[in-house]
């Protein structure tokens, strides 16, 4: 039996990453470093195009930091690995789509981990919270990300109170893209991943870099980076076989054959 806390399932260009640390899928330093290595390999493998991140079991996606490990000596400011906490939220140059399939409770660092994905699907019984305020700590990544994604006053209320909210509220504020019956969650995640895997990888890479680079820039400054081909992924795209293939396929009224080059 595989007892590793990170379980991988690869099907063609899609990689499913399952955090499976009974009883609650909490993350300690070692599992965070392992996840970082997994997503680093995903990032650098040209054969892989889309990742799905989910939790083992039916109750927890991830509750965040493993407090038992902390009590046993894991430092809260320790080495989380190449991608930061959970291996994903600080991984540089991750230019491929990541889908989070939230299969249960996602709180604290677990919610922050989900927010690190590009698309978030959630089971209809999923619940969320940022309870760090109650233990005297800062939900650091959420404090950066959430006010940029949802109305400021809602983000601040969630951060300042630490209250729980259900999947319907998460969907209403745009935290979650889709709500699925639990039995249909992974089916939908794979359906969406398959659709994305059939798309143009160089375009996805350019979109993700543009979004990152534009985050703290004025509109025209960001546009100048793109039109001036000052971003590596944009320059690669506009010089690629795929760019020409897309135009040819459109004029020939056929599906394009993307090669990623």
What does this structure look like?
The chain is an alpha/beta fold and 261 residues long. The protein is 41% helix and 16% strand. The protein contains eleven helices and ten strands. It has a six-stranded mixed sheet, with helices on both faces. Strands 4-6-8-9 form a four-stranded mixed sheet. A hairpin with a 2-residue loop joins strand 1 and strand 2. The longest helix has 16 residues, at 29-44. The model has no long low-confidence stretch (mean pLDDT 92).
Largest sheet: 6 strands, mixed
- Order of helical and strand elements: EEHEEHEEHEEHHEHEHHHHH
The percent range for strand residues is: 15-25%
How many DSSP-defined strands? 10
Mean pLDDT comes to 92
Low-confidence stretches: none
Cα separation of the termini: 40 Å
Shape: globular
For the biggest β-sheet, the strand order reads 1-2-3-5-7-10
Helical/strand content category:
alpha/beta
Q: Helical region count?
A: 11
* Radius of gyration, in angstroms, nearest whole number: 19 Å
Helix content: 40-55%
Topology (SSEs and partners):
Elements: E1 6-11, E2 14-19, H1 29-44, E3 50-55, E4 60-62, H2 67-71, E5 98-102, E6 105-107, H3 109-115, E7 119-123, E8 127-129, H4 140-149, H5 152-161, E9 165-166, H6 167-172, E10 178-180, H7 185-197, H8 201-214, H9 219-227, H10 232-238, H11 241-251
Helix pairs in contact: 3-4, 4-5, 8-10
């Amino acid at each position: 039996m595989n007892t590793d806390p990170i379980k991988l399932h690869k099907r063609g260009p899609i990689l499913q990453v399952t955090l499976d640390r009974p009883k609650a899928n909490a993350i300690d330093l070692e599992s965070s470093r392992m996840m970082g290595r997994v997503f680093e390999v995903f990032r650098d493998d040209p054969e892989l195009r889309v990742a799905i991140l989910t939790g083992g079991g039916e109750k927890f996606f991830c509750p965040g930091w493993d407090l038992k490990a902390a009590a046993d000596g894991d430092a809260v400011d320790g080495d989380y690995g190449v991608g930061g906490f959970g291996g994903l939220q600080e991984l540089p140059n991750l230019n491929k789509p990541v889908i989070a399939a939230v299969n249960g409770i996602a709180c604290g660092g677990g919610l922050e981990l989900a927010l690190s994905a590009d698309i978030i699907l959630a089971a209809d019984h999923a619940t969320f919270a940022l309870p760090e305020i109650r233990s005297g700590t800062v939900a650091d990544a959420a404090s950066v990300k959430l006010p940029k994604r949802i109305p400021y006053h809602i983000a601040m209320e969630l951060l300042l109170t630490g209250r729980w909210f259900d999947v319907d509220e998460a969907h209403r504020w745009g935290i979650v893209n889709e709500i699925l019956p639990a039995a249909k969650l992974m089916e939908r995640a794979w359906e969406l991943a398959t659709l994305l895997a059939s798309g143009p990888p160089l375009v996805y890479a350019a979109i993700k870099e543009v979004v990152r680079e534009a985050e703290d820039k004025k509109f025209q400054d960001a546009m100048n980076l793109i039109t001036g081909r000052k971003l590596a992924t944009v320059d690669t795209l506009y010089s690629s076989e795929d760019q020409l293939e897309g135009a040819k396929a459109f004029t020939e009224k056929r599906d394009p054959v993307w090669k990623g080059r």
